[in-house]
Specification:
This protein is mainly alpha-helical. The protein contains 4 helices and no strands. The protein has one domain: Orthogonal Bundle (Cytochrome Bc1 Complex, Chain D, domain 2). The chain is globular, with a radius of gyration of 12 Å.
Length: 85
């Protein structure tokens, strides 16, 4: 099973990557920029695997760039307390 199949696993996967990047000294700006790039890639290239991903994909598809950046920022906040440190 892929981490994309289960929302909780996807959150934990992202959180682990976020914590690793922060521990390696990646700035908050770089993290949110990367989150935006990942969100853009997922929205255009990956079929949603669950209801949560479908909602995010739908929101992303109707949002302008500023709103997409806000979605990416919110996702970073959402996952920041998940995963291992």
């Amino acid at each position: 099973m892929s981490v994309l199949d289960n929302w909780k696993q996807w959150e934990d996967f992202l959180a682990d990557r976020l914590h690793h990047a922060q521990n390696e000294g990646m700035s908050e700006g770089a993290v949110t920029n990367l989150a935006f790039q990942i969100g853009d890639y997922l929205a255009s290239q990956v079929e949603p695997k669950n209801e949560q991903q479908r909602v995010l994909s739908d929101l992303w598809s109707v949002a302008d760039k500023q709103e997409q950046q806000a979605i990416a920022n919110i996702m970073v906040k959402l996952i920041s307390n998940n995963g291992t440190r």
